[in-house]
Specification:
Length: 78
């Protein structure tokens, strides 16, 4: 069994499955955008200097950007 880790540790091009979200730290818009446990996503872009992270959500095919400070509250598995 693989260990889950925070989304901000993924590199560009890596895919992972969301396992858990710290709902007390994230606004409800994350659930509305499709960031739910079981969702497969891929890191498309990472801005320098702790900037936003571009994510592609597999189903439906959506590209979003989130802050690194938000990504640390989303736990994923490869």
């Amino acid at each position: 069994m693989q260990k889950s880790f925070s989304l901000d540790l993924l590199k560009v091009g890596e895919k992972a499955t969301i396992r858990q979200l710290d709902s007390s730290e994230l606004p409800s818009k994350f659930y509305e955008m499709g960031l739910l446990p079981g969702t497969v996503l891929e890191v498309k872009h990472k801005a320098p200097f702790h900037g936003p992270i571009g994510l592609q959500i597999s189903n439906p095919n959506i590209l979003i950007a989130i802050r690194k400070s938000e990504a640390i509250h989303i736990f994923v598995e490869k």
